UniProtKB/TrEMBL annotation:
The chain crosses the membrane at residues 230-249, 255-272. Keywords: Membrane, Transmembrane, Transmembrane helix. This is Uncharacterized protein. It comes from the Bacteria.
Length: 455
């Protein structure tokens, strides 16, 4: 099994007005979106071509009952296309870093030509099936791989020096041939027509989800410890009932039945019974349930075959400075500018915890390819953080070359410490979000001197 924890510590300046009294757990989880995806299996382009050739040979043998083998064909084609995209992406990164030779690019062009030639045979098998799902799969594989080829070859062309005329001519020739093929097949392609470009971008997004759903893991969310919560509520109701019943017995013994005093005592006991029940519910929530229990317990599935791969729990809490581990505090103060840092002027601290358990054997058994690991992706919307901010820009004046009026950004710093823990390793690093009322202006990672600008 694989078990690991991810903790996110949000250090929020007091002037943002985000605290436990006005930013609830439900609001946080509305702003948070996370998903888990298996890392795309890596393979050479020659191996991917052989894989497509094997699928074609298989479908030729099973022409009479091709529909019954949809599961196998679906898996093979989707994994192959995902690996093809990863191969082109990694090759483009090498080009950007100048880690290439002319022969590498020439070989790439030749291998893509062979790969695409095999892929173009797939739509012919639509005549052998009545399954619309299989027909779509075969057609989409051809169209998406063509789109990926054009997109990444343009990217490679942009990264290359313009002086490499021979290589550039080969790339442009390949792109042009692919675009002509798309036109003949009635596929979308980039043009001066905005509506067609809109359709192209939409298709790319849909294709990406369609093929990558073989690697995405489906998450089914439910509240954690619901039964325990209702058990505590029952105890609170029982304590309140004990009080009300005791008052009723004592007042009956003292005043007798059907008296005004007995009636008044019953009304008072009922009034206090409700308040006592709510009081104990609140005590159990804050002192016991809220501290010990997670907000959600989620199941992780394979979305295509619904195999249960694991679980993860998550919760968010505002914590005090005393509750921050020493390692996290050291990371937070790493390269802090000065005593003007918001840490010294006042911050509210919010901690998001995520604990994951995965069954490796089930994951490996469900995939024919070697799975190296997974990407745990978290997206967070900072709009709640920006609501009470001042205008995004202010005016300044200078006397350089005469008096001038300047515009400067009004920014807020939100520091985020990300902590990763497993049995084998531990790591943490700091991210500084530079925010304005319009959103994220830039992101700084002080440890590595990285600055990401929102352009």
């Amino acid at each position: 099994k694989t078990e690991y924890d991810i903790n996110l510590y949000f250090f929020l300046p007091n002037n943002l007005g985000i605290n436990k009294y006005n930013y609830s757990n439900s609001q946080f989880f509305e702003d948070l979106y996370g998903y888990v995806r298996l890392i795309t299996p890596k393979s050479s382009l020659q191996n991917l071509t052989e894989r497509i050739e094997n699928i074609i040979n298989f479908m030729n043998l099973k022409k009479q009952n091709i529909d019954t083998h949809f599961g196998y064909i679906n898996y093979e084609l989707k994994i192959t296309i995902c690996s093809y995209r990863a191969y082109l992406r990694d090759f483009a990164k090498k080009i950007k870093k100048n880690h290439y030779g002319d022969e590498d690019i020439s070989d790439l062009i030749k291998e893509i030509h062979v790969f695409r030639k095999k892929i173009k045979e797939l739509p012919t098998f639509t005549e052998n099936t009545d399954s619309q799902s299989l027909k779509d799969l075969l057609m989409f594989t051809d169209e998406y791989s063509s789109l990926l080829t054009v997109m990444y070859m343009f990217r490679i062309y942009d990264f290359l020096s313009k002086s490499e005329a021979k290589i550039n001519a080969q790339i442009l020739n390949m792109i042009n041939n692919e675009i002509e093929y798309r036109k003949r097949r009635g596929m979308s392609y980039a043009s001066e027509d905005d509506s067609k470009n809109e359709e192209l971008i939409y298709k790319y997004s849909v294709f990406k989800k369609y093929f990558y759903n073989i690697l995405f893991l489906f998450q089914k969310r439910r509240e954690d410890a619901v039964e325990f919560r209702h058990f505590l509520y029952a105890i609170a109701a029982g304590i309140a009932m004990i009080f009300a019943t005791t008052v009723a017995f004592l007042s009956q013994k003292k005043y007798g039945n059907f008296t005004l005093s007995f009636f008044v005592a019953l009304v008072i006991s009922y009034m206090f019974k409700d308040r006592i029940k709510d009081l104990f519910r609140q005590i159990f929530e804050n002192k016991l349930f809220f501290r010990k229990v997670f907000d959600f317990r989620n199941k992780i599935y394979d979305p295509e075959r619904y195999n249960l791969f694991g679980f993860y729990k998550e919760r968010v809490r505002f914590i005090s400075k005393k509750q921050i581990p020493e390692k996290i505090l050291q990371t937070r103060l790493q390269k802090a500018d000065s005593s003007l840092s918001t840490w010294y002027t006042g911050e509210d601290i919010m901690k998001y915890e995520k604990k994951i358990k995965l069954n490796n054997r089930k994951i490996i058994k469900s995939f024919n390819d070697k799975i190296e690991g997974l990407n745990d992706i978290i997206r967070f919307n900072v709009n709640h953080f920006t609501r009470k901010m001042d205008d995004p820009s202010v005016f300044l004046h200078t006397l350089e070359n005469g008096m001038k009026k300047l515009t400067a950004s009004k920014v807020y710093h939100v520091n985020l410490v990300i902590e990763f823990k497993s049995e084998e390793e531990y790591s943490s690093y700091k991210v500084r979000l530079i925010l304005t009322k319009d959103g994220i202006k830039r992101i700084e990672i002080p440890e590595y001197d990285i600055v990401l600008t929102n352009s």
